[in-house]
Sequence to fold (601 residues):
Amino acid sequence: GRGKNRPARGLRFTPVAPNTADAVTVPEGYAQNVVIRWGDPILRGAPAFDPDRQSAKAQAGQFGYNNDYLTLLPLPGERGRQVLFANHEYTDEQLMFPGYDEDDPTREQVEIAWAAHGLSVVVVQEERRTGRLTAVPRHHLNRRFTATSEFRLTGPAAGSELLRTSADRTGRKVLGTLNNCAGGTTPWGTALSAEENFNQYFAHADAVADPDTRARLKRYGMTGGASDRKWERFDDRFDLSKEPNEANRFGWVVEVDPYDPHSVPRKRTALGRFKHEAAQPRLTADGRPVVYMGDDERFDYFYKFVSSRRMMRGGSRRAREHNLTLLDEGTLYVAKLTGDSAADQTFGAGDLPSDGEFDGTGRWIPLATGDVSHVPGMTAEEVYVFTRLAADKVGATKMDRPEDVEPSPRTGRVYVALTNNSRRGTDGNPLADEANPRNANKHGHVLELAERRSDPAADTFAWRLFLVCGDPEDPATYFAGFPKDRVSPISCPDNLAFDTFGNLWISTDGNALGSHDGLFGVATTGERRGEVRQFLTVPTGAETCGPIVQDRRVLVAVQHPGEVDGASYEQPASAWPDGPGRAVRPSVVAVWRRDGRDIGV
Ligand code: FEO
Ligand code: CA
Ligand code: CA
Ligand code: CA
Fold:
């Protein structure tokens, strides 16, 4: 029929061409607005953003810096409103502060940076007849959580000796959350946020005396002296030679209940500790949540957690309290993937596998269940706190930087973004294999995983590569078999989302093809499976994060605009979003159709 020669429903827009415009570029016929920017006041009493009069107190009531993950939750009873949850991965002090001296930051600058990290909950309002979305400041549900807010550790490792510090003898109370990257949304209406590159905040690992402690810190990327931001000068807990366990209290998945304005967020130890990129749950047939998670590091692993408890339906207080315990008890697994092509085939030359497809089978290796370790030589507490070391021991598959993960609500297949790995096959590092098929992998790939019998709790799975990214003219690329002359070039997939039609949307970080980063949609089923179409591009220096695709609008987090080598507050590389002479501000953007119809139909 007529549909045959048209892109998949939901992706019927004129693709945006690769470009380097200092703007958010959207398809013809689409419009956009900035929903909220770094520094916009969200709490009662917070002042308007003023780059010349920043203070930690002001920032603690304003939207944070470098928005990354986004989710929208319904707000029944308030017409046209939803609850936006956003996280704030890290700070770019050179771009934030006039006259910043990286060798000599002031206490005020450091405290502003603490307040600019963390999480935001902010109610948003849609405009009738358009897709425009605006923030509702001072709403009673609005929250800020910063690098100094109180968080609670829960689950099997909470209270462990490994999590105790001189400020917290209980091992259960942590101040702050750091480097939150992607996240997830639970079916019981909470937001998950993943602590990623927390190592960068901790100094003086080189001065830690105990060799075992030093080895563990090293496996998590902590080897050096002073940290880049010098926070250790202002709070001893960032100095590992004084507080070696403080770093163990970061690298977790955080759960936030945005509907309870007094809730204390939880760090869920049952989900393990690593450079968590994301945490996306789904339910088994009997109602138990399963959470998929990547560890974003070259040659690190892909995990899942299977809860032993069933979700309770309904909005009762009892159900809500019960559901807030679901992520505290279950089994943590790591993935091992085996290719099925000829055993002697080597990859990396851009060849297709001998059987014509990058595919194979996989196994979920259990690491710990509650207080029981499945890893020889490690206690359960050690497995949770030093999960990378546990996965090393059981021989999990070393992946090309597992980023976001998203199960398709239509097919149940799970998609994993593997963003790139420039070191694959170099300097004695592991060589390309069927699941990570390119040495010096510059452009990344997207893996598609099908649990056995579609059971999210299964212990085996089948997998195949869905996309091998890059310039379509490069023979090493693969778009699920779709003709390469009809796809948008895509490089460095990072965050993933599904629309209601079952199309996968992919945002990129670090496009290595010369264009700015962007957002792409691709059909995962039917005749157009693999047809990648670019929906937008972001300004100079920015990464595209947090995509949400609703019927009427697409939301993206424009992270670190203007982050270009040598750029500073005085010498900005971008004039986005407010034009020349104004501070560059990471912001959330909504995109909608001018004619009021749904996205891509
Ligand atoms: Fe913060 Fe893996 O991106
Ligand atoms: Ca990021
Ligand atoms: Ca194969
Ligand atoms: Ca990311």
